[in-house]
Task: structure prediction
Amino acid sequence: MKTKQPKFNITELKQILQGYSIHPSHQRLQILMYLLEHKTHPTTDIIYQFLAKKIPTLSKTTVYNTLKVFLAQGIIVELAIDEHELRYDANIKPHAHFKCKQCGQIYDVFAKSLLFNMDFIDGHQVTAYQVYLKGICKNCL
Ligand SMILES: [Zn+2]
Ligand SMILES: [Zn+2]
Result:
């Protein structure tokens, strides 16, 4: 029987960060790993609270600053689907987000949309897009 392997190993994650010219510090690697393993679109707070148990020296400011660096390099995307807090997603493939009004869960939805393939629209250059859908999720229905 095969032993259970973590989905992402540190060497792989180091290469990702180095590929974006980001120094792969321990804290940055752990934050990236968290985002890749938890597709729940966490907030800064959620990431901090989880990782602070593993890294006692971690500060919320470090999490915040690391997310800003990842964002600037395009490793992650920021979601403003919530009125009150920003959420983060390491899935940078074009996809939309669906938020359930009942349970608050945010799902990735991969509907085909022409909008995702547009570099220009009406002569405007598109550099980012956010597609948010809201309703009642299949688990709550
Ligand atoms: Zn729901
Ligand atoms: Zn997503």
Summary: The chain has a mean pLDDT of 90.
